[in-house]
Write a structure and sequence with these properties.
This protein is of the alpha/beta class. The strands form two sheets. Strands 6-7-8-3-9-10 form a six-stranded mixed sheet. A four-stranded antiparallel sheet has the order 2-1-4-5, with helices on one face. α3 packs across α4. The longest helix is centred in the last third of the chain and has 17 residues.
């Protein structure tokens, strides 16, 4: 287990920009993420939030640099975990949660894996999100909230330095949403992870976020929840929606 190191490790996003031809998706984005903190990324549709996460993952061509420094100040390549909005799959398929983990955690064909070893590893991962009882459940039989907890467990193996959550509770009911946020809060407290979360649920962010970044093609405002939510910039951005 990684222990919280007083928020000494940092991820610095420097001058990130994405352009498609003459179209600017976002430009000159700068901010710093600290381990042990949950930073919420908010903004209107089309602000560039999901593209920014994919840029950090290296899936979208961009300019700018990502610098990660551990608690000792060493410049390293961070381990990044990612939870998408949803997982596209055939709900009638008999694939189970265990099958999904086996396919993701090993490059070998599933039928050649040691089921005992993989099962123990999967149970350990699922225990982090209080979902070990779902190991043999079909993916198609999971609720939206249960599926997102499974994807969160997958994103935690290996344990990341930076965890990216792209609207992970979109379409999840209020109970599932609360459970998910509480799990993320527990992870933040127990593990030395910086978390960047896209969400439109401002009520939940008021309860759980340490910092907020308001993005609309560029960083419009950043700070703690109160500073951003009560800012003129916030009012102006969402007044247009």
């Amino acid at each position: 287990m990684k222990h919280n190191q007083s928020k000494l490790c940092t991820t610095q996003i420097e001058n990130f920009s994405v352009k498609v031809g003459d179209l600017i998706i976002f430009e000159d984005v700068n901010f710093t993420l600290h381990c042990g903190e949950l930073t919420a990324l908010i903004g209107p549709n089309g602000a560039g939030k999901s593209t920014l996460l994919k840029s950090i993952l290296g899936e979208v061509n961009h300019s700018g640099k990502l610098n990660y420094f551990d608690a000792k100040g060493e410049h390293l390549r961070p381990i990044i975990g990612y939870v998408p909005q949803t997982l596209k799959f055939d709900a009638t398929n008999p694939t189970t949660v265990l099958d999904l983990f086996m396919a993701c955690l090993t490059a070998r064909p599933v039928w050649l894996c040691s089921s005992k070893f993989i099962r123990e590893r999967v149970i350990k991962n699922l225990r982090r999100v209080k979902a070990e009882y779902l190991i043999d459940r079909r993916l198609g039989a999971l609720s939206g909230g249960e599926l997102q907890r499974i994807l969160l467990a997958l994103a935690l193996d290996p344990l990341p330095d930076l965890l990216l959550l792209d609207e992970p509770i979109s379409g999840v009911d209020k109970i599932g949403m609360r459970i998910f946020y509480e799990l993320v809060a527990e992870l933040k407290a127990a593990e030395d992870i910086a978390i960047l979360l896209i969400s439109h649920d401002l009520e939940m962010l008021e309860r759980f976020a340490d910092k907020v970044i308001l993005l609309n093609k560029r960083v419009i405002k950043s700070g703690n929840v109160r500073e951003v939510f009560q800012s003129q910039e916030m009012s102006e951005v969402f007044k247009r929606i």
